[in-house]
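Intended use. Records like the one below are meant for learning the mapping from a protein sequence to its folded structure. Do not use them to infer anything beyond what is encoded.
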Amino acid sequence: MSSDVVIVGAGIIGAACARALAMAGLRVTVLERGAAASGTSARGEGNLLVSDKGPGPELRLAQYAASLWPVVAAELAQELGTAFPAIEYERKGGLVVATTDAGASPLLAFAASQRIAGVDARALDLGEARTLEPELNPAITAAVHYPEDAQVQPVIATEALLASARLHGAEVRVGVTVTGGLRDASGRITGVRTTAGDVAAGAVLVAAGPWSGEVARAFGADL
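Structure written out for the chain above:
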């Protein structure tokens, strides 16, 4: 079998990539050694945060992702229908606080730098903070509200993205372990070796989370 892209890992990153690539018309195969969403995606909180990122590439990526999630959630609901559980996307906001005088200034300075980068970071007085969260530590010294912070149910979101990817032509194979790479005479990767046979591919995308280093070593690379 041959694909334009083989994706190693069926967590939320691999699932999102599979959907996007399949929607772009590429032949996509997702390979997962366990079950879909059974690794880090099953153990995370599903937080979609801008509050924890300072100005730079990571924040820009988070802001772009934040703009996509409402669209993706609506598309998934339309594509999959009511028989598939909702991904529970909710822009619920986040609240970051300091509990010492020494911690207040860095928090407020960080928020100020984020505002310059386009983040909605609202410094609150202590009364406003306690209105948002009455159970806050009474010793708080500063508070910043981030209305853009959101959350999804990560396992459902992953399964929904994979289901959508399948609708757009992707193949998802679970219980298949990638053991190495296929190479041409020049040394270029041309596919993967797996416990279920070889899969030729124009490109290989490693989305194995904390196991990506292990997968990369199977290809002779060091991450």
